[in-house]
Amino acid sequence: MQIFGDDVAKQGSVGVGRRNAGWQMAARCATALVGGYAAAAGFASLLARLLPVARAEATLWGMIVSFLLFACLGLWAFYEARLARVAAVIWSGAIAAGTIVALLGPRA
Amino acid sequence: MQPDVLMLAYAAFAGLAMAMKRHRPMSGNGIALSPRALRLGGAALLAFSCLVMLHRIGPGQGAVAWVGSISLAAILLVLLMSWRPTAAFVLAVPAITLAALFSPISSTLPVGSGVKTLGEDGISTGKAGEAVGLLFVVAPD
Amino acid sequence: MNREPGTVQKALRQSMAWIHTWLGLIAGWILFAMFLTGTASYFRPEITRWMQPELRAKSVSAAQATEAAVRHLQATSPDDEQWFIYLPDDRTGVTRVFMRARPNPDPEAPPPPRRPEVKLDPATGAPLAARETKGGEHFYRFHFQLQLLHPWGRWLAGFCAIFMLGAIISGVITHKRIFADFFTLRWGKGHRTWLDAHNASAVLALPYHAMITYTGLITLMLMYMPWPIEANYRNSDNFAVEAYGRDAEEPAAGRSVPLAPIGPMIGAAMHEWDGAAPRTVVVRNPGDAAATVTLLRSPAGQLDARAGSIVFSGTSGERLSASQPPGPAAQTAGVMLGLHLAHFAGPALRWSFFLLGLVGTAMVGTGLVMWTAKRRRPAGNADFGFRLVERLNIGAIACLPAGMAAFLLANRLLPADMPGRADLEVEAMFWTWFGLAALSVLRPVRRAWIETLTLSALAFALLPLVNAVTTDRGLLRSVAAGDWLFVSFDAAVLAMSGLLGLAAFRAHRASARQGRASTRNAPGRPSLAA
Fold it and tell me: For residue C245, what are the CA distances in angstroms to A29, B111, C166, C266, C326?
């Protein structure tokens, strides 16, 4: 709320080369929004699948925390300066969590 | 409404504001209390208003109602302070007085026995889920 | 990454400030509308009652209202699969019934059309004749469906809600002087005033904003985040059965047996619930040997919106089963749902929530205006983005209230027996809102602010007048009759009118000051930096 400069993007932690800045920002936004949702869904599902309580309860806990996870992942995507790292962590997190959940299969 | 809780919270925030150098009234008229005393007094009043609310309508709804009331009290204070700072602070005195007068109306308890009765009853801890939900909701403050 | 601790903090603040700005800007206009209509929805039943002034609330016991409704249903739709009876309470004052027809045995046949709800007199069970209206339900539906086709409105609302959550978290991280600035609000200092107002409305009611945003996401979590269910269940229907104790749907036996009286079941349930009343009665397979009656407990007075239920046999009246007490997660979700809906709240707490909702609306509005106040150049901004934001701000902040007032005015001005009037009321809101926003583009920005705010204020001020002329429940009579709902409604719309008028007045003063300054200095674009 304190700093509302137009140019924070250019000089701040999310600053990147001028030519590719547009594409990089688009990739970052897509990673934050789509990747962040996928990763939040993956981790929430993993939590729901692994939490050692009744499955309905575990499912609800997963859903309840998922939005906080999504918000934090999305914000982190704009804090971390290196886009490659953002993309790697979020997308591989989403894929890994999703794969584990798929391999484990639903609870009996 | 729990008008006494609102007024207690108003007075509490007025104390906390007066303790700050930026808001401390320039002329020393009427404010004999040190910033430290104001801060402690404000915090104590705020805690007391919380206990009153929890005791009166239970831990779950009481916590919700308390957080709502102190938010509104703080907003009222800040609006008044931005307009008439001295009057805003002076109003804290009738606020406490009125809170004491209102208590027998809005409370089922006689005035003055508030804190003691609290100890006897004990605030029963809420059901697990309720407590977790509330903690979560109130935590960002 | 080798950042110094100080630099890390600074980089964090800068990135969070940047993202806070853009999250708020992108979702801001819709969030403003969601906040304002959602705030009005705290009084959903009261608005509906105001919009049907022909009806007078009646209070009868739950058993009496149920028996009356069942008499009506047995006479009109004895062969339905399910009856839903929403019992009256002191806020709604009417019984509402909804019937679901038995599905066609032929699987190829189209499903039977959904029939609209019917309002019944609680005491007699006779259908009530009142003007057709969507009532408070319109604001409520709009605030999460945004008048878009299902499911797009709900997805858009969820998108904005998660942006709001991101904006709250990033805003807290950005605001490095939360406690030092806690009581700070300075008027007449240009964009500094907007920043103060934004900070104060955000910080002082932060628990409310965080609560309402997160619990809003929770209300639709089954839609937004169904993946944990997929991870645990082969058949996701089983989740509803396990989590919410929804009973398996028994098919009809095909033998007719008369329905047992429901009054005694309600008595037994209220005894079991320590006197709490049921809110909803669901009769499945009425008149059949396999009939069941499910009583859902009213959530009034408890935070958890999902109160328990008891199932009775519809033929013998015997108690068959009751919902299990919810586990910690189910209870947390129920409490979050309850906090969002605030059905548990008594009048005082509901008014507190209403005021806090207005503070939230102000937070979004001041944030939006600050974006332009911060970027305004003395010589004027020519770029399209800036002018677009400026115009959208006027359209969202100053014109939406006029639209909401138009919805209420249309309710009084359209003939009560006019066919299709409920939809016309809704159209009145959107034509007024978007029409005014479009017209305001023709005016210079600072005039547009002043004029649209003034029109909104006038529209609200007209409501008590129009109500007094078109109904027999004007303010004076309401006061005399002790009809506090109508009195409060008039008081609330007059207060809204006053707030909007004050905003128009301040915009006018700021603009006059600006005008003097710009004639003294360089010729500048009109502006609203207060």
Answer: 40, 45, 34, 20, 9
What one-character DSSP code corresponds to residue C142? H
Global ipTM = 0.91
Cβ pair A74:C166 closer than 8 A: yes
Give which of C403, C393, C467 is closest to C435, Cα–Cα.
Answer: C403
pLDDT digits (tens, 9 = 90+) for A76-106: 999 999 999 999 999 999 999 999 999 999 9
pLDDT of residue C208: 98
Are C404 and A35 contacting, i.e. CB atoms less than 8 angstroms apart? no
Share of chain B above pLDDT 90, in %: 45
Average pLDDT over residues C200-224: 97
- How far apart are the C-alpha atoms of C44 and C300, rounded to whole Å? 15
Alpha carbon distance C482, C473 (integer Å): 11
Residues near C308 by beta carbon (within 8 Å), at least 6 away in sequence:
C273, C296, C297, C322, C323, C325
- Name the residue ranges covered by the structural domains of chain C: 5-49+137-200+347-520, 62-128+246-323
Give the lowest-confidence range in B40-49, B104-113, C72-81.
B104-113
- Pinpoint the alpha helices (H) of C77-151: 136-145
Mean pLDDT on C480-493: 95
Q: Do C331 and B72 touch (CB under 8 A)?
A: no
Task: Give Cβ neighbours of residue C375 (< 8 Å, ≥ 6 apart).
Answer: A6, C381, C386
Kindly list the distances between the CA atom of residue C132 and the CA atoms of C119, C127, C411, C417, C425, in Å, as whole numbers in the listed order. 11, 13, 9, 8, 10
What is the nearest CA distance from C174 to chain A, expressed in angstroms? 6
| Cα Rg of chain C, angstroms | 26
> Does B106 touch chain C if contact means CB atoms closer than 8 Å?
no
**Cα separation, C87 vs C67, whole angstroms:** 11
pLDDT of residue B109: 42
Alpha carbon distance C508, C528 (integer Å)? 9
- This prediction has a pTM of 0.90
| Neighbouring C-beta atoms of residue B37, cutoff 10 Å | 12
Query: Please, are residues B15 and B92 in contact by the beta-carbon 8 Å criterion?
Result: yes
Question: Looking at residues C209-225, what average pLDDT do you find?
Answer: 97
Give the confidence band of A10 by pLDDT, cuts at 50, 70, 90.
very low
C19–A12 CB contact, under 8 Å: no
Q: Is C189 on the interface with B (CB under 8 A)?
A: no
Residue type, B33: L
CB contact under 8 Å between C330 and B77, yes or no, is no
Instruction: Write out residues 356-385 of C within 8 Å (CB-CB) of B.
Output: 356, 359
Rg (CA), chain A: 17
C265 versus C526: the higher-pLDDT residue is C265
Q: C419 CB near a chain B CB, below 8 Å? A: no
Residue A11 pLDDT exceeds 70: no
- What is the arithmetic mean of pLDDT over C162-169? 98
Distance between CA B7 and CA B13 in Å, rounded? 10
Task: Check: CB of residue C391 under 8 Å from CB of residue C23.
Answer: no
Q: Which of C400, C411, C412, C402 is nearest to C460 (CA)?
A: C402
> pLDDT band at C459, cuts 50/70/90?
very high
Q: Give the residue among A83, A93, A72 at the shortest CA–CA distance from A29.
A: A83
Collect all residues of chain C within an 8 Å Cβ-Cβ radius of residue B63: none
For residue C247, the model assigns a pLDDT of: 67
